[in-house]
Amino acid sequence: MVPFVAIVLAAGQGTRMKSATPKVLHSLAGRPLVAYPLRAAFEAGAAHAVLVTSGDPALAAAVISGFPEGKLTVVTQSPPRGTGDGARIALEALPEGTERVLILYGDTPLIRAQDLGELVAALDRAPRPDLSVMTCRVAQPKGYGRALRDAEGRLVEIREERDLRSADERAVDEVNAGLYAARVEPLRSAIRRLTPDNSQGEYYLTDAVKLLGVGRSVAVLGHSDALRGVNDRAQLHAAEELMFERIRERHAVSGVTFRGDPRVDDTVEIGEDAVIEAGVRLRGQTRIGRGAQIDVGAVLDDVEVGDAVSIRAYSVLRASVVRAEAQIGPFSHLRPESEIGEGAHIGNFVEVKKTRVARGAKANHLAYLGDGEIGEKANIGAGTIFCNYDGFAKHRTVVGAEAFIGSDSQLVAPVTIGKGAYVATGTTVTKDVPDDALAIGRTKQENKEGYASRLRGRLKVKKGS
Ligand code: UD1
Ligand code: MG
Fold first, then answer.
1. Can you give the CATH number for the domain in which 421 is found?
2. Residue in 48, 333, 365, 395 annotated catalytic
3. 82 and 221, same structural domain?
4. Atom 13 of ligand 1 has which residue's CA nearest to it?
């Protein structure tokens, strides 16, 4: 195959998105929209890519980071005067000696590498055209450029919706998907001759078909998913749902069980035999180990989950690590920089922040563990609070291995509970507790025999009066 360079057009704000964020930077399944066509182009074999943007530095930064160094050139088109004008600018930035280009729009995230390969290959098939255009047949052609053919069925022009002249033209159901392969020199010459004499006053890349002349362009019929351009938020939502479906399919064939409709970002990795239940949301750099179970409604952002971990229903985890065989939830909250050791248990209504919980330790019910260090096999009772904040600074709580913290205790940081120490239920710990010591800090209980009925009698009289 003759080497080719990909051009991805991603300039313009995308006014139909009604957003302060440029269209192609909107997130779709965890990546900016524009990352998908770029990736597809490289997968299809592009030797290099030229990305046309409006000069937004955030865009360049967001995109470049994910691609091989030196293989992506970012150029600025300002103001955006149409797709033809964008292509002209990109052609000026091609690496020396480039003979062929593949042109994609930055707002078509569902395009696949195999479809692009077809388009490039068409340049070498009879009639060896200068330009191949991907088209699709659709039930609702409205809004797309129509592929107009002559009596012999040859592609003669692509005409935009607003410029259609008759009901017959409007009825044409073969539309331009916005993907092209071309020989550089003929394309360059056609683009030089573009004029903005259309309803939008823009330079249309699609006019190259007409300018190259009959027989020099061919239409390659593609899958209609290729066409799903994202122009507004409704289309963004539809495209993202399709992408989530694809992602589930990809993991499912590599051994992951899905139930219902969990949504997994494109960036997430999942090991074999993991089970992901309905309503789960896995985002960012999340990695799920083999055989892990992620139950209904769990939300994980940038979380590393070890093998055979169980994340129970409705737990929320961020930027944390959960080691093998640990159990989290239901209804647990892991905030950033938490690390839950092998086989440790974090139960319902436990909030953990910036705390290391060592192997086999347990905090099974209702606790706040912030800025702490919990030793192996320590047991944190229900209602325990690490009082980590004095209104000005955060302080650390250290609980030694095999220590036992009785229910409803407050550990006022900075404080250290020694190894194997015992904190009696209801104690407010303000001083360090030595290894193996018992800390008890509560008033002694006194029982007054028969007092309850006397008390009730008194209260009754009072109420009656
Ligand atoms: C375009 C096609 C239309 C096709 C449709 C498929 C043209 C003239 N029309 O219409 O035939 O059916 O895509 O989705 O090409 N862009 C630039 N610079 C510009 C203008 C646009 O880089 O000056 C980029 C945009 O970021 C976008 C892409 O080009 O990613 C397409 O532009 P858009 O305005 O979405 O074109 P459509 O109206 O969708
Ligand atoms: Mg579009």
1. 2.160.10.10
2. 365
3. yes
4. 178
* Tokens representing residue 404 in the block: 């036992």
Could you tell me if 141 and 147 are in contact, meaning their C-beta atoms sit under 8 angstroms apart? no
Q: Are 10 and 32 in contact (CB under 8 A)?
A: no
Judge contact between 158 and 175, C-beta under 8 A. Answer: no
Instruction: Report the length, in residues, of the chain.
Output: 465
**What is residue 428's three-state secondary structure?**
strand
The Å distance, Cα 128 to ligand 2 centre, comes to 28
Backbone phi and psi for residue 245, each to the nearest 5 degrees, phi listed first: -60, -45
Tokens of residue 431, six digits: 């001083």
- Print the SS3 string covering 32-93: ECCHHHHHHHHHCCCCEEEEEECCCHHHHHHHHCCCCCCCEEEEECCCCCCHHHHHHHHHHC
> Does 122 map to a domain?
yes
Q: Within 6 Å (CB) of ligand 1, which residues are found? A: 9-12, 24, 52, 77, 80-83, 85-86, 105-107, 144-145, 158, 160, 175-178, 204-206, 229, 231
Q: Which residue has the tokens 């991805």?
A: 8
Ligand closest in space to the Cα of 86: 1
pTM of the model as a whole: 0.91
Structural domain including 280 reads: 233-439
Residue to mutate, 9, 15, 105, ligand 1, most ligand atoms under 8 Å from C-beta: 105
- Residue-wise pLDDT for 315-345, tens only, equals 999 999 999 999 999 999 999 999 999 999 9
Number of domains in the chain: 2
Give buried/exposed letters for 353-387 (b at 16+ CB in 10 A, else e).
bbbbbbbbbbbbbbbbbbbbbbbbbbbbbbbbbbb
Asked if 175 and 273 sit in the same domain, the reply is no
Measured between alpha carbons, how far is 360 from 41 in angstroms, rounded to an integer? Answer: 48
- Let me know if 365 is a catalytic residue: yes
Convert the pLDDT of each residue in 385-422 to its tens digit.
999 999 999 999 999 999 999 999 999 999 999 999 99
